[in-house]
Amino acid sequence: MDGVDPAVATQRGGNVFQTREWVEFVARTQNAEPVVAQIESDGAPVGTFTGLIVRRFGVRILGSPFQGWMTGPMGFTLAPGVDRAEAVRALTKFAFRDLGCLHVELMDRQTDFEDLDGLRARLVEFRTFELDLRQSEDELFAGIKSSCRRAIRKADKEGVRVEEAHGVEFADEYYEQLIDVFERQGRRPPYGADRVREMIRCVEPSGNLLMLRAVAPDGKRIATALFPNSQDFAYFWGGASFTSHLPLRPNDAIFWHAMRHFRERGVARLDLGGGGEYKLKFGATAKRIPYVRKSRVPGLLSLRDAAAYVYKRRAMRGNARSMASDPGARNAVGLNILAVEPVVEGANFFAEPLVWAIPPLLPL
Questions:
Q1: What is the domain partition of the chain in residue ranges?
Q2: 303-325 pLDDT tens trace
Q3: What is the CATH number of domain 130-285?
């Protein structure tokens, strides 16, 4: 972060996916080059951008994030009132001309579709669910659907205990349960245990990763979940559980524990990590985040879509059904890799006038 104005650099800590530790995790697992750029308006710093460059089929791509990275929205940290459409225009010009990229993908959780009206790019909807934790514990519990409240009470009555976990060994515990989830659907997980281990190695020492396990009365570890978190929001990255112990309702117990944990620590929101209508039972509301995609070369977006389709099929071992619409997927989350992506606006390819200046690449 050398060279970035301290007044705007500190804002990045509110989004865990912009932190040094998370960027390092993505860089290691994707063989990617980090990019942190300061955004200026009339010579004054007004924010930062965080992303990484990868090379796919010989093409340099700037992702913030890129599909399949298993990370939530990255994007910008911008001062209030800053025009986000102009920030995107400046970024794409910087990526194409200065970084030598041919394609840009950007998802910013503070940006609405209305903010990008008129932007010449493809806008894809990333739908997630979000819980407002700025209420009392009683209000949080009352907002949960009655069936889910009964499940939480049942888990407590049955003697299910939720505890915090630590250490890279947790990855194997989680992954064993994840395999069980996918096997009952005739699938395999779309990523390996090494990805989880690397995330724990990079992020846990910073204190920005909550790992939870549910333990049965007999001491067996029956469910797990991982929640990257920061000042502004926590994020449900993934969870799994053993089929044989689902009647004990360990997943509901884990979510209730996480909700209270983050509320007590002043975290404002809990992002439930993508689609899945079952998440409404926790009292969450839907949130639509625009996923911006723009290519410098005509036709590249079509090639990107074809490659993404093949990637998804391979990741799911030939099963084209989306976990987001599969009732049996309630105990595991596919994140960005399986997000439903309706096209909101067609792709256009032409240069936009540069409104703001983005200085050259800055180190983390």
A1: 130-285
A2: 666 666 665 666 555 443 333 33
A3: 3.40.630.30
